[in-house]
Amino acid sequence: xxxxxxxxxxxGSVQPESTRNLRRLTEALGQASGRxxxxxxxxxxxxxxxxxxxxxxxxxxxxxxxxxxxxxVRSFLAIPLFFGPSxxxxxxxxxxVESLQSAQGPFKLRLGDPxxxxxxxxxxxxxxxxxxxxxxxxxxxxxxVVLVDHxxxxxxxxxxxxxxxxxxxxxxxxxxxxxxxxMERREGKEYDFNGELLERxxxxxxxxxxxxxxxxxxxxxxxxxxxxxxxxxxxxxSDAQRRHPGLxxxxxxxxxEHPYLIEILRxxxxxxxxxxxxx
Length: 279
Known about the structure:
Strand order of the largest sheet: 2-1-3-4
CATH architecture of the largest domain: 3-Layer(aba) Sandwich
Distance between the termini: 9 Å
Order of helices and strands: EHEHEHEHEHEHEHEH
CATH topology of the largest domain: Rossmann fold
Number of helices: 8
Number of domains: 2
Structural class: alpha/beta
């Protein structure tokens, strides 16, 4: 069978820097794999003005697939830039494919594995996080690390963070305390599995004392509404430091800035291509 057209798929953001990062990763993955790969967002990114993206408008999945189907392409492989089995992958993408098939005829969109597939896992993600916080841990190793992610009402997505957290915790010096936090969660005890909001975790840690710095380990790939310059995380940290004078908070770099991520994506791509050829 013909090779599928390959795309690197993220959830999308209205922040231009998110699309810029997607394009950077796509280019790096193309160079590492020797393949032509297209940067595509599931949603949101088409709201960014083309002028903010060097004159090239972002592509969202529905529009991109529709254009390619019009050109006669019928086989696609999407490599998810997602940590785990998000509803975006399990529900939104299939719904979109079904709608396009009804309008433009049959085609195949195969989804590769996410960055941390269950149950196999991916130990390189914890190593990325460890590398990103290593320069921020004082020589005395007296610090507190808080792993923070987006948060999800889906237990399987939360399991990904919990497993990465366990792996990262095992890599830290014995004098480093370890916590977890989320940026979003739903109200109600039925969602307690998701974890505590970052603001509450920071307040509680500050009440325990301000002598040890807090290091935020960001389980985020790209800058967007939460992570990156001017995001919610920066605002929450600034507010916490105003409420607790003397509290020191250091924020790690993003997962998408580490070269190991391209290695992981290249492996997902090779596995996806092998599965497509065997189908």
